[in-house]
Design goal:
heterotrimer, A alpha/beta (177), B mainly alpha (621), C mainly alpha (298), A: 177 residues, alpha/beta, five-stranded parallel β-sheet, 7 helices, 44% helix, B: mainly alpha, two-stranded antiparallel ribbon, 7 strands, globular, NADH-quinone oxidoreductase subunit M (chain B), transmembrane (chain B), oxidoreductase (chain B), NADH dehydrogenase (ubiquinone) activity (chain B), transmembrane helix (chain B)
Chain lengths: 177, 621, 298
């Protein structure tokens, strides 16, 4: 029991550190990416919350899907997600990731991101303004601190569900895991 | 008695040749045994610096002495030769399975061993010349036995330079013989000191020519790359590790035993160093820089290492030429260390070639997962070559730096620093492109080399670390050499060396390095265990990689740097020599057309004329 | 026995102190850069959180060489640290020479290079090749400066060079040989891979170069390595040009000043192309260093 207590506290410390330090990989597929530079630079400056850009998926904690995803890019997105290391979080960005947005009837974009990857939260809007992004990320921070952001766990638990959905649109998917 | 050391290997050479025809492995085994015998009996010779041996020969009224003697310097070179030969012979037992000229290889290799011991034991010009030529010609056969098409051409370039220089050497020796009536070094030294300085200097410069060629000093280094790159893979370690050094041995003989330094002592000096010595040191500096820049450009790993040998020889030349106790000790240290780590590098590369059959670096990659011991040998050797503590290579370079800083030779020091920092670049290139990176599909099933090839590499790794921690072992014999040559000795203990402005304590460095390593290791092992993934599961901007070959950065590794020197490298010295040769041939052609159009009568006329002229000259004199 | 425990304690203390100080400096630098860019910037303690987070994360490895490289990189800098006098703290700096320090630093770089290239990622190779080329650029003027300093003071130990400047602050090499100090400052910026000379870690061009495949504890160890490297390089500069210090507080203060200045310079310039960087180092810093060295040796 003592051991569990130590483990639990250690996990809490790690969660706390994780919520204070988030490196995000902005997967700039869609138009939402244009909102990120102002969020990062002097006007809104997300770095004051400990959120900064990462260069590669190996260094990143947060995968920001900035807009619509064609099936072609979905394949790369999944590959990138699988290259990231747990704990890792996915944030859907803009209405395209929620329900397809203006591409709701397109034949080659996916409509609902969380069928393919475990989305932690969405930031709605077409496109969301920097204020909305910051608000969303602050909520994500709170979720991480409370230990609620467990998408990577969900992905592992329901691996078959996600793989089925992915293969339904993509056909065969090469996997690294 | 000293003749044993020379003639046993030469006699064994023929036995090895005959037996090798029956069994492919016999030759190499005999080479290993003979070298082991040589090494053992040479250790028995240690300390007995009074043994001499001489023969007389009366030829056409001249009395010619052949003198052999042993001294610390020649003992060291003989031991180095024997020791490295054992390792190479062990290595080549297995590696020569598919080698067409295996018998010839062992024949020539043993003759070279014998003749090199002959060279270092020789105390007169004629003996030296005979063994020198023996070594040159046998190594010529060995180089041309390489697999490549270019090997023959490379060997020709080598033999023309070597033979030309050696004949010039013989002329100078005969000139001295006419004056003194003896070929011996001692009488030659007396004569040269007494003679007019200008003439003595000229003579000594001519005498040092074959040594400069053999040591690969700029501007006579052009044979090194092709010869080393194309020689059989088992011979390259010897060629680069030992035969370049024999040139240095010759230069030490010229500088100290033929009193070159004594003769130029009172000439114009720069910072207390006679200008001629400084010029030699500058040649060393230029050698470092050219060797380095050209090494960085190579795509062929053997040629890369050959150029690096050229640049490392520059350090040795600098140290010897500045003639301070520290400089000399540093040079001798570097000479030994270079033998050790360069043979290790060449053996590791030979192992790679043995398995992959190519020397082009961009055709390989990721071999570390297939050949870990070869990688370890290469890594240790390059750490030593780049002069990173705690290996032996750092110590020797450090001593040379100390010598340069002590006297304030700024430009020599800049060259030395340049060569040292840039050596990181060229040693990292094979490491990164051959051993690291993506494993090529055609090399998936490669295995580590057989045990007999591993043993020499393992021994060399241990020696590198041993001398890196206990340089005192080497300093012992070096101080004896210094004493023998009349140079001040350097203070040392088993694991420290006293420099001019600071001491070096290798045991402390080794311990502290281990401590740092342990702290890092503890930190690493307390953290979460990591998951092993394949080489192809790597960041690729989201793209799938299926083709390992196109995801390996190897070709033109240092292109931006090479671009800085493109213009310089285009003006190749080889081209210059080739143009010179072409013009020479053309003018010879003209002469031939004018004089010898092919008529027999003309030749008769010429011979009559020649006879008349000679008679007239004889009569006048 | 007690002596050994004392030594080990000293080892650990200095290591932890330098890691902590290096991380703090990195935090300060991020704050300064943010302020220059009119941002608020992350808190000063952000790097500590980063390291803590990274050690808590999962990580992947590409085989034993990847692990070995990370350990060698960190171990190399920790070993180097013990040869540098930090104020009055000096463990083995009497025995260590400046040249040794330069080469010991190289073993860390070699470890990092080997490990990251061992990941099989070509972007790491590109980064390392750039880093090595740039190293040839900046090490050359630096070694010329060291040559001149050692010749001038006839000692090659860092401690000795520091002692030689004792007395008035006018004895500092910063005032005695200002040109040399300026060159060393430029070299320092290059050594630390700050802005004009950061083409080897260009994040958007080659995916942060050498660290492209490092995540989790590997990145954490490289961050710690970086933090100690910063301390070593700054301490070397302070010892060689600012006369060292009596105690660790003043020493830290001096290091901080140099660090802040270097950060400010670093945030002003765009990035050099790699060959232009080398050309720059060989034209100005090397030229000035040679002139100064000639002045000293004649």
């Amino acid at each position: 029991m003592n051991n569990n207590f130590v483990k639990g506290s250690w996990q809490e410390i790690l969660d706390w550190a994780q919520n204070k330090s988030i490196n995000m990989l902005h997967y700039c597929t869609g138009c939402g990416a244009i909102e990120l530079p102002p969020t990062m630079t002097s006007r809104y400056d997300m770095s004051r919350f400990g959120i900064g850009p990462a260069a590669t998926p190996r260094q990143a904690d947060l995968l920001l899907v900035t807009g619509y995803l064609s099936t072609k890019t979905l394949r790369r997105l999944i590959y990138t997600y699988e290259q990231m290391q747990a704990p890792k979080f996915v944030v859907g960005f803009g209405s395209c990731t929620i329900n397809g947005g203006m591409y709701w009837d397109s034949y080659n974009t996916i409509k609902q991101l969380d069928k393919y990857l475990p989305v932690e939260m969405y930031i709605a809007g077409c496109m969301p303004r920097p204020e909305a992004i910051l608000d969303g990320l602050l909520k994500l921070k709170k979720m991480i601190a409370d230990g609620e952001a467990d998408g990577y766990q969900r992905y592992q638990d329901n691996l078959e569900y996600y793989h089925q959905n992915q293969e339904a649109v993509l056909g065969e998917v090469q996997r690294t895991q | 008695m000293l003749t044993n050391y020379i003639f046993i290997p030469i006699a064994a050479a023929f036995i090895a040749y005959i037996l090798n025809k029956r069994n492919r492995k016999a030759g190499a085994v005999i080479t290993a045994l003979v070298s082991a015998y040589l090494l053992l009996s040479l250790t028995a010779l240690y300390g007995r610096w009074d043994i001499t041996q001489s023969f007389n020969l009366s030829l056409m009224g001249y009395k010619i002495d052949f003198l052999l003697a042993v001294n610390p310097l020649s003992w060291l070179f003989a031991v180095m030769t024997a020791a490295i030969s054992i390792l190479i012979a062990l290595f080549s037992i297995n590696s020569q399975e598919n080698f067409k000229f295996s018998s010839v290889f062992n024949l020539n290799f043993l003759i070279i061993i014998g003749s090199m011991i002959g060279i270092v034991f020789a105390r007169d010009f004629l003996t030296l010349f005979i063994f020198w030529e023996l070594m040159t010609w046998t190594s010529f056969y060995l180089i041309s036995a390489g697999k490549k098409k270019m090997a023959g051409r490379a060997a020709y370039r080598y033999i023309i330079l070597s033979a030309g220089a050696a004949y010039a050497f013989l002329m100078a020796a005969i000139f001295i013989f006419q004056q003194t009536g003896s070929f011996a070094f001692d009488s030659a030294a007396e004569f040269l000191v007494a003679n007019s300085p200008a003439q003595s200097i000229m003579l000594l410069l001519v005498i040092s020519l074959p040594f400069i060629v053999k040591a690969g000093i700029f501007p006579l280094h052009i044979w090194v790359k092709d010869a080393h790159g194309n020689a059989p893979k088992e011979f390259s370690p010897f060629l680069s590790g030992m035969m370049l050094k024999i040139g240095i041995y010759g230069m030490i003989v010229v500088f100290y035993q033929l009193s070159f330094f004594k003769i130029i002592e009172n000439t114009i000096a720069y910072r207390g160093l006679p200008l001629l010595s400084y010029l030699f040191a500058l040649l060393g500096a230029v050698t470092i820089i050219t060797g380095t820049i050209l090494a960085i450009r190579q795509e062929d790993m053997k040629k890369l290492v050959a150029y690096s040998s050229i640049s490392q020889m520059g350090y040795i030349i600098i140290g010897i030429a500045i003639a301070t106790p520290l400089g000399f000790s540093g040079s001798m240290l570097h000479l030994m260390n270079h033998l050790i780590f360069k043979s290790t590098i060449f053996l590791a590369l030979a192992a790679v070639i043995y398995r992959t059959g190519t020397t082009k670096m961009y055709e390989m990659g990721g071999l570390i997962f297939r050949m870990p011991l070869t990688f370890a040998a290469y890594l240790t050797a390059i750490i030593a070559l780049a002069g990173i503590p705690p290996t032996n290579g750092f110590i020797s370079k450090w001593v040379i730096y100390q010598a340069l800083i002590e006297k304030g030779y700024l430009f020599l020091a800049i060259a030395a620093f340049f060569g040292s920092i840039a050596s990181f670049m060229y040693v990292f290139k094979p490491l990164s492109t051959v051993f690291l990176g993506q494993l090529k599909p055609q090399h998936q099933n490669i295995k580590e080399v057989p045990l007999l090839m591993k043993i020499p590499m393992l021994i060399l790794i241990l020696v590198i670390v041993l001398f890196g921690v206990f340089p005192g072992i080497q300093m012992n014999i070096i101080n004896q050499i210094s004493g023998y040559l009349g140079i001040e000795t350097v203070n040392y203990t088993l694991y420290s060396i006293q420099g001019a402005n600071g001491a070096w304590n290798s045991l402390l460095i080794f311990n502290i390095f281990s401590a740092g390593f342990i702290i890092a290791l503890l930190l690493f092992s307390f953290a979460k265990k990591s998951k092993l993934v394949g080489l192809l599961d790597t960041y690729s901007s989201g793209e799938y990689i299926t083709d390992a070959e196109s995801y390996h950065y190897a070709y033109q590794y240092y292109r931006p740097f090479d671009r800085l020197f493109d213009n310089l490298a285009a003006k190749s010295l080889t081209d210059f020599y080739e143009t010179l040769t072409k013009n020479l041939v053309r003018s010879g052609e003209g002469l031939r057309r004018a004089l010898a159009a092919g008529k027999l009568q003309n030749y008769a006329l010429y011979s009559v004329l020649l006879f008349v002229i000679l008679a007239a000259v004889g009569w006048i004199i | 026995m007690i002596d050994i425990i004392y030594r080990i304690g000293h080892f650990v203390l200095i290591t932890v102190f330098s890691m902590a100080l290096g991380l703090l400096f990195m935090g300060i630098a991020r704050k300064i850069v943010a302020r220059i860019q009119k941002r608020y910037g992350p808190p000063v303690y952000q790097p500590y959180l980063d390291v803590l987070k990274l050690f808590g994360k999962d990580a992947i490895t590409h085989g034993f060489i990847f692990d070995f490289g990370a350990i060698m990189a960190l171990g190399g800098v920790i070993a180097t640290l013990f040869f540098i006098p930090l104020g009055s703290w000096q463990l083995y700096s009497m025995e260590g020479t400046v040249i040794l320090v330069i080469y010991l630093l190289a073993i860390a770089s070699l470890g990092m290079a080997m490990g990251t290239v061992g990941s099989g990622n070509p972007q790491a190779s590109v980064g390392i090749s750039r880093a090595l080329m740039q190293m040839l650029g900046y090490e050359l003027p630096y070694l010329v400066i060291l040559f001149a300093l050692i010749y001038r003071y006839q000692t090659s130990s860092v401690w000795g060079l520091m002692q030689a400047q004792a007395g008035s602050f006018l004895n500092w090499n910063l005032f005695a040989y200002p040109l040399m100090a300026a060159v060393a400052f430029v070299v320092l910026i290059g050594m630390m891979g700050k802005k004009p000379f950061d083409s080897m870690i260009a994040p958007s061009e080659i995916g942060s170069g050498p660290v492209v495949e490092s995540g989790g504890k590997y990145l954490g160890m490289l961050l710690l390595q970086k933090s100690i490297t910063i301390i070593i390089e700054l301490a070397l500069y302070v010892n060689l040009f600012l006369g060292g210090a009596e105690n660790i507080l003043i020493f830290t203060f001096k290091m901080l000043i140099v660090w802040v200045l270097a950060t400010m310079f670093g945030s002003l310039f765009p990035r050099f192309r790699i060959e232009d960087g080398i050309k720059f180092f060989w034209k100005w810093p090397l030229g000035i260093a040679i002139l100064q060295a000639i002045y000293i040796i004649t």
